[in-house]
Amino acid sequence: MKANLQQEFLNKYNTRATAAYFSPGRVNLIGEHIDYNGGLVMPCAITFGTFLLVAPNKDGVFRFKSLNFNEEAEVSLNDEHKKSGEVWYNYPLGVISYFENEGKELQGLDMLFYGDIPIGSGLSSSASIEVVTSYALNDLFNGGYDKLSLVKLSQNVENKFIGVSCGIMDQFAVAFGEKNKALKLDCNTLDYEAVDSNLGDYVLAIINTNKPRKLAESKYNERVQECQTALAALQQELDIKFLCDIDTQTFNQHKHLITDSIVQQRAQHVIEENDRVKLAAKALSENNLAEFGQLMYASHDSLRDLYEVSGKELDAVVEYAKTNTDVAGARMTGAGFGGCAIALVKGNAFDKFSQDVTAYYTDKVGYAPSVYSSLIGDGVGVLNEPVKS
Fold this sequence. Notes:
- By secondary structure, the protein is an alpha+beta fold.
- It folds into 2 domains: 199 residues, Ribosomal Protein S5, domain 2 (2-Layer Sandwich); 173 residues, Alpha-Beta Plaits (2-Layer Sandwich).
- 40% of the residues lie in helices and 22% in strands.
- A hairpin with a 6-residue loop joins strand 3 and strand 4.
- The N and C termini lie close together (7 Å).
């Protein structure tokens, strides 16, 4: 953790930053592999994220520097910007390119990024960078975008400039997040409800499996195709656009239309998971963390058995959690095949939980996870105080 980012900016650019912004990462509390099936997800912003400090320059260039990566870049205003390899600054570069293509008047800017989101953990560091950049440019240069437009802009950058076919949940959560609120988001309509989520004596434990997610992309595309196959089968008798247009009872009455047993399992997970989100929102709003925890476990079991996107690493975390009475619930979060699991852990027991889950996981898997404690935080915004983290 950097003690004083203003000093770091001064060291890098020999001038002081004139503005500072923060955009969080996110976890999805429940509702996994739902976003591309037109249903409900329930993400929240976390207290890890991306800091961005800026100062105008008179050189007509954008300079990108980071405290997390060695790569630096300098690009001229109004040049034709293209993605460069796999470097981190493609994300802010894509946002700048979008603003320029939309005819927005920009000026030269020195930019320093610092993130405390674990890289490659599935906590949406890329969306955090995109949203903090778009928010800052909109604020500094009077872009005129509302927050939802910034979300769509940032997703567009991810899809078209970066080339990753993500849904809108990540950018939405880091932009619209609210302290002690989960966002029950309809991925089809983008209607959302901020659900009271006071964790009370509990904290959100984030357990990074530290497993490289090499399988995630190919298997993700495979699951999308399986869901489309299931939808087409159900459409023989049902007038629906998405799997999540029906509930579990309706699915059970029509599942015989899906003749492939594996494809039927995929659809069963999606439809039951969508129903679980509704139950989870009710449990959280009523401060029933015990019920919410059981829904987390049910979600993980379904992702493991019906959707088959877990793995021994994620399963080991949840197996351990079920043995610990200080844990209300746990599940994998994100696309799967690595990445992170989350658990609701009593705050005063977090340190012991961290030690014990690390020992259990290391024994099962052969290397250690990384364990973090977070609360549910606010979305993107301006930092008005001297920048310390």
